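Encode chain A's predicted structure.
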Amino acid sequence: MAIVAFENLCKAYKLGSFELFVLRDVDLSIEQGEYIAIMGPSGSGKSTLLNVLGCLDRPTRGTYRLAGQDVSKLNDDQLSMIRGSRVGFIFQSYNLIAQLNVVENIEVPMYYQGTSSHDSTERAKQLAKMVGLGDRIRHRPTELSGGEQQRVAIARALANEPLIILADEPTGNLDSQSSLEIMKILGDLHKRDRTLIVVTHDPNIAQRAERTVYLLDGRIEREQYNRKH
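Encoded structure for chain A:
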């Protein structure tokens, strides 16, 4: 069973009496453990697709099934529960909380899921170690490099054992060396059967995925299977 399935999915925004379609008749299936890159020019619908995937937005028409559950028509509270328990987000700008240290930032998603303080702290420490920050757990974001901050963001995305991990330009603010390190971590997650969906404008990063989906004017223009790294 596909972990992600879009069927004839459309997304439109109302501008007065006019509907602006940003996604049109998208059919997309992603299997458990797949590593997908999404590419396309500015305005092609990449961000909107990611928002729908992450249950931040609902489709206007069509269906979206996440692990077999139709999430297309869920209300805001239900979508929030899905986001918190089934989706991990990695952002270009990290979105860490400046007042919190590494462990505390990683714990945030677990706090909202009601995980006990002891369990969340222990898991956060394990995740920090997994991304190579075991010796930096008491540092705050301002004391970390961009690459280190993105490592924290990756660990935070894994906090609640999500079904899918969504990364929006995860190396967009990083130098080439830090970018390589982040992509290696994502590659290692893929080897552990994590389902990764990465939006990128960089073909070198897209090549690291198993499959690249190209969007144009809100439609899937083509798909390409990449050689494995």
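The radius of gyration is 18 Å.
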